Every structure is written in structure tokens, then in C-alpha cells.
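Researcher: I'm preparing a figure for a lab meeting and need a structural model of a single chain. I don't have an experimental structure, so a prediction will have to do for now. The sequence is pasted below. Please return the structure as C-alpha cells so I can convert it later.
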Amino acid sequence: MLIETEATPNPATLKFLPGRTVMDAGTRDFATPEEADASPLAEALFNLGDVTGVFFGKNFVSVTAAPGVDWPGLKPDVLAILLDHFSAGMPLFKPASAAGISVPGDDEGLADDPADADIVAQIRELIDTRVRPAVANDGGDIIYRGFDKGKVYLRMQGACSGCPSSTATLKNGIEQLLKYYVPEVTEVRAV
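Model: Understood. Here is the structure written out cell by cell.
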């Protein structure tokens, strides 16, 4: 089995592609070792001690190293864990735990005003069709969290969370795209 590795815009995060589906639906972000208890794979990666984040996408796993950690030293250990996990066909989640859970549902953000339903639908469609596929290529995800008085609230995950270029992505990329197609949008904010 060959696991490809790609750099992401976040220098602390590498994207690992095992050549097979990781998550059948949705994504899952583990920001702490306690959250990783739901997944044997995420738990094993956190147990390396130098890992501060694990993110499961459709066909990739993004791993974030602790500040000051040298990727050339950590990468072989991460690859070994991923290779063992996928070669053995181990489950991604522990039984009777978070098996069916992906990211929190889009409805868990701000309560959208029903009067803005058409605007929200346009925003969600643009995020799902244009933004999310682009950031997935970089090992992350962006989730819609709400729209209020012209402001769009988004949650960044995986390689996007904590990335030095995430503010530029939000302001120069996503905000400009949404403003262009949805004139009611005045600003985009990360939550």
C-alpha cells in the first residue's frame, strides 16, 4: 500500500492520502487527545506526542504537528501508523462511539433569520460547491455557521485551522467570492 503525502498551506500540517476512502460522509476534526478517544487511528496519532490535530476528510487524513516539531522526524511515524491502520482494515471509530458522527451539523451555528432564507441558501451553495472542495485539496474544511446582518460566520477545520494564510483565504478568497455572488454579504468571519 502506498500513502501519498502532500504539503498544505499550513506548514504545521501535512495531508496523507491512503488511496482509499477515509470517511464515507462528512468530515471529523480532532483538536485534542480527549476527542481522539472516539477513533483508534486518531488516538494512535495523538499518542505519538508531537501531534496536536487530526482531521479526517473523504479521502485524506491531515495531521498537525506541535510547534517546533520537525516533520522529517515525525513523518515516518505517522506513515507507519496510517499504513498499519489501513492495511489491517481497522475501523475508523470505536464501536458504540462516534461512528456515525461527522462535523457538527450546519444548524448548530447562529440561528438564521427566516427572512434571509434565500440569501443563506445562496451562501451555503457557494460554500459547498466552490469553497469546500478547494480547501479540501489543502487538507481542511470550512463549515457554514451562520449569517447575521451581512456577516457570514464560518468555522475552519483541519489544515485550515491555525494556518498562517487562513485570514488571507477568508478575506481575499471566500469573502470576495461571496460578496460578488451575494451582494447582501458585507463580511466573512471565522468562529
